[in-house]
């Protein structure tokens, strides 16, 4: 196959990138904005009501225990401020390890055809069963009120967004959505694109203003070199590559799958590009772009230590030739730029 020569602009974080028009957004991916984990999906009002009723029933029935004593997980349900159709659940963390002290503030809301879900964790040391727990009161503080304000603020600034819609306001693009506002040091966004009906090609694009990376891809690729060479692969790109006035680096390699998988040995390609590797600041977020040609999608990548997910298995030949990926790569990487008015 050959990717489309037509490129379409997509918004990731506070950046823009032009991608082949036949790449489609995968529902995987996710984002955290100022400690609030967000999910935005298309939904009708009726689907929202069904989801809300189901979640209310689940949480009402949930319990946690402390020293063998059961307690209700859900403390209260609070309507969101006027202008947003939704509720906030103040509930215990449901792993059963911390009684009612470890809290999760969970929002379920609906706005203009999109279902918004959000969570933030907090702590409450005021429950009567903890009144004699000196260690708890020494090391932890109650922050539920503060975290409630935080999650409501983020949700109030969040709206749904079509994948190809490019906002003009200041803010950050997330999967299926947009969060209005000035840049902060707490933004982390991950998106995944694939070709329709092709499961062994994907592109992962991530933006983060969290703490700076430990090193650049030029350093990390060297950690991977022994594994690549053992698998009869090769590194064929490793260079500095600046775009739009930003410091950038790229690396690319081909290698064979693990022969111990017993599935045959098939070559796959990985291309990796990043800007602002040592920054991770709100004004200069890191951006990484990865192309995986011939790999099935897994749930994560370790961008800081350069390790390859050894559980990845190529079940069939890569859908694109290495030359086709290189051609696509050299078209899209130069298009990376900050979105106007994003910052």
The number of distinct helices, counting runs of at least 4 residues, comes to: 5
Q: State the separation between the terminal residues, measured CA to CA.
A: 38 Å
Number of strands: 21
Mean pLDDT: 90
Ranges where pLDDT stays below 50 over 5 or more residues in a row are 300-312
Classify the secondary structure makeup into a structural class: alpha+beta
The largest pleated sheet is described as: 13 strands, antiparallel
Query: What letter string, H or E per element, gives the SSE order?
Result: EEEEEHEEEEEEHHEEEEEHEEEEHE
Report on this model:
This protein has 343 residues and is an alpha+beta fold. 18% of the residues lie in helices and 38% in strands. The strands form four sheets. Strands 3, 4, 5, 8, 9, 10, 11, 15, 16, 17, 18, 19 and 20 form a 13-stranded antiparallel sheet that branches. It has a three-stranded antiparallel sheet with strand order 1-2-21. A three-stranded antiparallel sheet has the order 12-14-13. The two termini are 38 Å apart.
